[in-house]
Amino acid sequence: MSTSSASTLRTSIRLDTRIVPDRRRHRRFSLALLGRFMRANKQEFPCRLNDISVGGASVMAPVDVEIGERIVAYFDEIGGLEGVVVRTFEGGFAISFKVTQHKREKLAAQITWLVNKEELGGSIGRRHKRFDVVNKTSTLKLADDTSVDCRVLDVSLSGASIETEARPPIGSDVMFGKLRCRVMRYHDRGIGVQFLDIPDPEALRRYFG
After folding, report:
1. I need a surface site. Which of 51, 63, 68, 135 has the fewest CB within 10 A?
2. What global pTM score does this model have?
3. What is the per-residue pLDDT for 5?
């Protein structure tokens, strides 16, 4: 191969390496994550993520924002992201991220993990061994401060499966007995929750054993 041909091939490889990731980064994924955002005037508001790519996101918000406004948003399980408002719609807005290449790569990995976890009903995110619980009842306190009786199906250090007729919104925080939890999924008998504070292993086994 001539020097000219080798140089052309190396240039082509470098271009391909840049082009392929650029196409992928614009693919959006639906992810319902709770968060908050800060406007340019430093005011903070709650928000909910609609969909996201490594290039930007669509966000539901309780206030109107302006095209071109700088936004700093924080989403559960993703962290902080900075961007500029590029579009507004009823009940929300879209932002284009202003992040480094390193942050884009990290965000791509986070999105991949979250999307797969959601499609698999959260099972991919289980880090701890679960054990079945026999005839153990507890109380579930919802976000509106109402309490309902529930039955524990299984539990681990990271979460629990609960039998209940209640269906609090995915992503909402509840109290399961004395444990702070986040609702992660629904199943045919109730809900699956993730503990927000990892409990003491021995205390957990004594309580549910």
Report:
1. 135
2. 0.47
3. 45
